[in-house]
Queue: 3 jobs
Job 1
Amino acid sequence: MRERDRWALWLPVFFALGIGVYFSLDFEPPVPVTASAAGLAALLAAYLRRSAFFPAGIAAAIAAAGLFWAGLHTELARAPILERPVGPTEVSGRILRQDRTGGPFRIVLEDAHVARLPPERTPERLRLRLTALPAGAGPGARIAVLARLQPLPQPALPGGYDPARRAFFEGIGATGFALGRARLLEPAEDAGIERLRHRIAARIGEAIADPAAAGVAIALTTGLRGDLPKAAHDAIRDAGLAHLLAISGLHLGLVAGLVFAAVRAALALWPGVALRYPIKKWAAAAAIAAGFFYMLLAGATVPTQRAFLMVALALLAVLVDRLEIGMRLVALAAFAVLALDPYALTTASFQLSFAAVVALVAVYERLAPSLSEFRSRSGRAPLFLAATLLTTVVATLATAPFAAHHFGRIAAYGLAANLIAVPLAAFWIMPAAILAMAAMPLGMEIWPLAVMEAGIDAVLWTAETVSAWPGAVHRFPPMPAAGAVAATAGGLWLCLWQTRWRFLGIGGLAAALAIQAGAHPPDLMADRDARLFARHAEGRLYLSKPRAGFLGRVWAEAAGAREASTAAPGSPGLSCDTLGCSARGVAIVLRHEALEEDCRAAVVLSAVTVSRRARRRYCAEEALIVDRQRLRRLGAHAIRLTPRGPVVETDWDRRGRRPWVALAGPQ
């Protein structure tokens, strides 16, 4: 009973549990069924209201509500998706977003029209790559271009990151690339928030000459990361400073705090106003408005939504004269984010940001009296240093399981880098950014941006130095989903409860470590288009052909390898020539001429279709044959070689038939 006041904190957890169950299914549950389940669970909870099982009834009802809400959100997001390639064809639409990362433009068109598709089969939004945009084109403008469209990209490996699911919830139904120059049909009618973002980015790019510093400044002020050079991005990531580029609590809290202080100080200059009116509440209202504008300017991503909700709730506490801020605030923010966008639960940004916030609030709730005593004895400067160190350690440990699950990598020296970079961002870079934004309408942003550039240079130097240290990045196979779930359960149990039984949560963390220790990458990998195959052996990843590009990098990360190497004749683990590749018990057929010799292996991966006649004539009767036809039907394959034979997992096995899946499935 001592924990009764903490029970409410578990409501968003069970809501998230229902959402998680929905996204883990390999079939689409009918909305009427989930709605009925939620209604029955609510009736059961009401029936148990006087029973000791009432908390369990409420938990079940909230979880069922999460399952229903996620399904309903998906139904509302349904839109046509492209099933097969189309084009070349004329494509037109209005630019919703644009970005540029290392070369071509990436744009999202809405209100799209495709010449070769009827309106009822035309996706509402398209994502295109273009080498250039016509003069005057930007967000809000309508353009036309000759393009080739393709279905949404599929996961590189079964259970891997699903770009089609993300695109589906963004309303994007197809991707493609332009084959010629785009034509401007209509200029933008009004500025809009997207055009404002790009105008601010352009002004910053003109004022800061160094591309890396300009890219960081643009990312911090507008959320656009396309102008950040790859070398700088890699250094920031490898040093454990990538969170500084995601506009979140640190950035938004500083904006709201500065506006609050400035408005309150300005109003205090008029004694007649200060003595008669609640200027503190007026300042809080102005800070909420400023934070909301900054969230929109930053693209309203999950971290910025979470940060704005928490800042807004804290300022609302000022408006209603309630200054209690703690875990309830985090719970409300989580509920609000999931209610607005259930899909956010599956994203790395949601998991990382809330893991860090929950852990930090739990630690500071526990240590508040000790920190207050430490401040009275040692002063503010030592307290700030201790708090920075504590915050960095807690946030790093809290986010480590999710970084391991999504990225299979951990920055070994992130603590050292953050001890330098976080104070620079909080007390140098962000205040200068806020001043630059305020001065931009007057054309006086050059001086604040110069100050901001100096601070960014110091952060970039820190990132480059730390990322160059030996062993700066540890790579390993990504943590299985079961490990991430165990870590989440254990961490929440440890953070949300306050009595001694909270330490039972350590068991969940230990289980996550055990699951991670037992994680092994697939021995064989094949992509859906039968263009690339790989063998993982002796701690290395061997690819069937050179220039594997993005897919090769993704597979290397899945194998926990720093990079993949191309197999050549005589390569250990996998030996390749122009006709195919071979290893012990494994053959990869690249051309028809290799079928007769290679099809006798126990496992045959084939870039060509193996006909029934060829199977009977050349292949071993018990051989596992994965050819082009099977890959097109079932998607990417991951195969583990065990003493009892190969264990096959396909993309179809993991995703099934969901609204965002365009595979044909078993036949």
Job 2
Amino acid sequence: MTTVLKYYRPYIPFVVLILAFLFGQAMCELALPGYMSDIINNGIVKGDMGYIWTTGVWMIIVSGCSVACSIIGSFLAARTAAKSAKNIRSTLFKKVTNFSAAELEEFSTASLITRSTNDVQMLQQATVMTLRLACFAPMMGVGAVIKALNTSVSLSWTVGLALLVIVCIMMMAFFLVLPKFQVLQKKLDKLNLIIKERLTGILVIRAFTTEKTEEKNFDVANLDLTKINVFVNRAMSFMMPALMFVMNAVSILILWAGAHLIEAQNLMIGDMLAYLQYAMHVIMSFLYITMMFIMIPRAAVSAQRIGKVLDIESTIIDKADPTQLKDPKGLVQFNNVCFAYSDAEEKTLSDISFTAEPGKTTAIIGGTGSGKSTLISLIPRFYDATEGEILMDGINIKDITQHDLREQIGYVPQKGLLFSGTIGTNMQYGKEDATEEEMTEAAAIAQATEFIDEKGQGLDEEVAQGGTNVSGGQKQRLSIARALVKKPKVYIFDDSFSALDFKTDKALRDALKTKVGDSTIIIVAQRINTIIDADQILVLDEGRLVGKGSHEELMVDCDVYKEIALSQLSEEELERGRK
């Protein structure tokens, strides 16, 4: 909660200004019943029309001032809430984009989306209500009580009774509804997660004809959320009629008690009507406070959820005095590197040592779950090694800023990801100011020129969100082209050729050797054909490096590699592939 509140500090001057206008509105509204009482007691009863007109004009002026203060106060409150919500959303986005993979695993994507949208919106609504009602209601309530007591002490018991009943209703609602808000947001997270997963995997769902099953799963989550919402809304809908009943009952009570006082000549008609107005102001103030008692706890839950994201410190941070990379070459060295996930009991990688040199291709192969993707994710510092060190040109990568380190790396993930836009804008993610010639050259190396030319608009062809309007192989080639446009010193391909046919795979690797042969190339692959001509092949098995060398050396010295190779190709095919 404290973390979120600091984003409101820049708006303290606006809050002071809002309070000033709200105070003015309250004073104007509290003055009106007094004018009405004077008109009845001193004007109508005495028949003084001049006094009635004069007081009436003052009532119009005071009413105008009240309206003006209300409008300006509401405008400033809405602007302050919107600006602060904008800053919180912006900070949340920046925070999440700077998370390491370890922090991202703490929150689901659906939960982060809910926190950045629904929770921030709830906070914005609460801010408006707090500035407008939570500040205005006490001013109006205290002022109305003072005015009412000055008007008639004899009727004060009616307001006291009304406040006692209202407080009882508020406490009941508070203890019934408040615990449900935390549950409500969690149910909303779950529903968002189901929607996201089902929309992302819609083709798989259709392929396995599990639409009915998924509909049932969605209905269960939807029903859970609906039940909580219905409970909260029923509690809220009960409060309003109950409070309105109290208000109307108090009005009748005041008229009844006031009539007896008037009959006994202890109270004037105008004073009774003024007291009635003050009583309504007191009750309305408590009504506003009741609304805040419901809104603020819910906003507090949202603030805690947002604060939990903002309070997390990334496990991967830059040093205060980082080392600068001068004339980078792209030499990557692993020295006795070990890695274990924070929630794992065993190490994922153990005692990994190798050197990937510029101008050479280093390939990594191994069974499923052997740690291939984890190993290469340590190079751009998506995770930090728990033991040992990783060097870039002889400098520990922890001594280099993440920005400078990643500037030297062209990373192609296992799953090709494209953003909505055009083919050109996607390629410019690698280099913002990339020219059309540079993009065309990168596309040629990635073997993407043919299908780009087939598109009606070439590089200006639209790409749907997630790249859903291109095939898996085209998506991979565009992802590779995006990395090539960057022209880094180190290329990392995480099983990025899996969706390519053998011919395209071979042509792409040949083009890489010719065009970017002076860079360090690290390839993770499952297919022997992809890595057979690599200068160095690393074989992983259960997180350990069990083989290192060329294809020929590993076929002789490494049983794990030989088993993988022979499971894919015959000895004759392996020999032909090498040639």
Job 3
Amino acid sequence: MKKRTLSLALLAAAFAFAALACQQVPVANTNANANTNANAQTAVNYTYPADLKPALDSINTDDLMRHTKALSSDEYEGRGPGTHGEELSVAYISDQFKRIGLKPGNPDGTYVQKVPLVGFTAQNPTASFSVGGKKIDLKFPDDWVGVSRRLEPEAKVDNSDVVFVGYGVEAPEYGWDDFKGTDVKGKTILMLVNDPPVPDPADPTKLDDKMFKGRAMTYYGRWTYKYEQAMRHGAAAAIIIHETGPAGYPYEVVSGSWGRENFDIRTPENARRAAVEGWITLERAKEVLSAAGQDFDALKKQAVSKDFKPVALNAKASFDIKNQLREIQSQNVVAKIEGSDPKLKDEYVVYTAHWDHLGKDPSKQGDQIFNGADDNASGVAQLLEIAEAYTKLPTPPKRSILFVSVTAEEKGLLGSKYYAANPLYPLTKTLADINMDEANQWGRTRDLTVVGLGNSSLDDVAQQAANMQGGRVLQPDPEPENGGFYRSDHFEFAKQGVPALNPEAGIDYLGKPAGWGKQKRDDYTEHDYHKPSDEIKPGWDLSGAVEDAQLYMITGYLVAQGDKYPEWKEGTEFKAKREQSLKGATGP
């Protein structure tokens, strides 16, 4: 593989930029009318390069709030793909890109990339287990939710044998195989959520950090992987037992999404998937297992051992899902700033933020609109502010900057998945993706959370940017067991080998006691995440969101000006893919 480095002249220019970064400049005013903590404005001394200051100063709380209010208003009906809310969202974001002065991001001269999706809604789905002559009917969506991604009018599973397969994981690098050669073709498999929490042999009260990254979730723990496993083994149905702690969210988050219209990209793979993919509540799963003569806690304890073998249950499962299908053309919204260096402008730094949310649910009592103010109108607001900031630079960066607001993130990262499979610009010439999903609502922080910290050299660049903000500290995900790295749009770029940064709000808030930030995160997850109550609250303080957006802007700028491509670090699962994709490519 050829090393992708710049010329010595460009390397010298990079050092010159680093020297310029040492010039002291005044603290940027995040908002002339900001509701900032009294001590916050004097708590950080910025050392921004003078050339960046006008751009960074243009990012402010008033504009962040304005964009967030518009996109999360009831008029936008929760921004569901294939709805009037999508039309309004795409028009708003496109109009803002035009107002800012960005060029259309699609080479065809438009601001959109069409994303063909199939919508499917389960009509009166039924599920039941027959155990020892007893029939246990499940109520949809209170007891279970399920879909059929085969995208056919009906999916039926009749009296299939039921097998408990632990965590459903086959990980040869850990010497782990939950299937042990068991034939589950045509059967219903029950699985646990997340990775196997393997105890440390030296201290059983702790997790073994050599197995599945210890407390941090790997891709083996994601529900997407588990359904992929069901497809590989030819299962008729795949049902995950929901537990709030290991899942990282309550069952209502699952039922609120899976119990309504879902979407997928039609591919040949759809026909090979399990006929039914779904979730069951912990309480009803325990009832089924107990009726079959098994104890849930005992089975779960067995499943955290390499010696676990699948348990055939004395039970049969039946499902019937009639699908209401519709084809739609959803849209990613794309704009760009062309690089200033003729030799480098065909290389890209990408910023992403999904515009979609969960739409409207007419069956709900009371508030029916999932406004998605924080998730992710606020992230799109940051995307728009960063895009405008780039237009304030005296000279555009050497490489081009692409801004992509993607569709159907809430339906399985579909917009970013489609872009990564059908990139408008080659991924071999895409240096990095910086993703924004949920901005900081609660004020300024001394730290910044980076989900997946340590995966790539992008973290080092982000720390350079943080150093310019008075030495802010990058912190790892405080909840790695929730698998956040695999749950937003940057992941689809990472799967294709593109180094990806997924930053989130920090938890060390200025003027607040220790633990306050974690408390706010937990409260949001419990009460607002994927609920109609995700609306702008009276106490929102976007001064921290401004500072975070400024850091993201600096990070992307440094990459666009840099002397080498960002790289995955040793031991990451994406490094080989990147090296393979770049093999034989010529450097700049």
